[in-house]
Amino acid sequence: MKARIRRNVNLVSTLFAGLARARNARVFHPHGVLLHGTLILREGPIQQPNSSAAVTALGGPAQHPVVVRLSKAVGTPGAWPDLLGISVKIDLDGGQVDLLTATVGQSGWRRLFFRPTSSWCRTPYSTVLPYQAGQRRLLLGLSPERRRSELAGLEALKHAADSTLREDPLVFSFEERDRAGWSAVGRLVITGPIAESDASYDPYLNALASFAPVPLLSRLRCAAYAGSRRGRGAADLPAEANPAAKR
């Protein structure tokens, strides 16, 4: 059984390395826009302010600088619909945490499944697979605080990043979902471009012992991320780079 798992992991890593090498980019979400912002945990009049498992696991109420990558999963041209993604790299005192989300349905059971769209501020985003936050298991998500129909496609986003985001930032509600449903536990405020051209995200290597994706499919997903980095020639992310990572 263990030998079969190792073969499957190696196969996934090799497959994703080959695909990334052929594409000269990530297998999924090949092109994106890198932006800086702030994650404000438990900010404003949020109901039941002491009940957030995610905020507690991330160290409590605070403001954290983040590097955000907005991207299209397939890479469709212009404003054509695609599965849109928001990846958030959170800079904590104890290390970095990478949170990957993608567009899902608007409400109810639809928020449990991916949904393509054309605008960055039209539908919610979700991790889809749950996180273990302390003793609780929950989904994490982002919801745009207002629709912005002009922001469709990567080029429109790049233009906004260079011209208007400082005065008119992208703002998303940071949410968690447990058995009681979705609740807002903070805000993600995206304010403009940064100098770096790209960044690597890995939610398994960049995690905390108290805050990490559940083990479901973790070995295969880790192999896919590592293979994609290797195939496109990106620097790998050593596990020891994050001293607080979950082992």
From TrEMBL:
InterPro entries assigned to the protein according to its UniProt record, in alphabetical order: Catalase_sf (IPR020835)
Superkingdom assignment: Bacteria
Name of the protein described by the UniProt record: Phosphodiesterase
Source lineage: Bacteria, Bacillati, Actinomycetota, Actinomycetes, Micrococcales
Origin species: Nesterenkonia rhizosphaerae
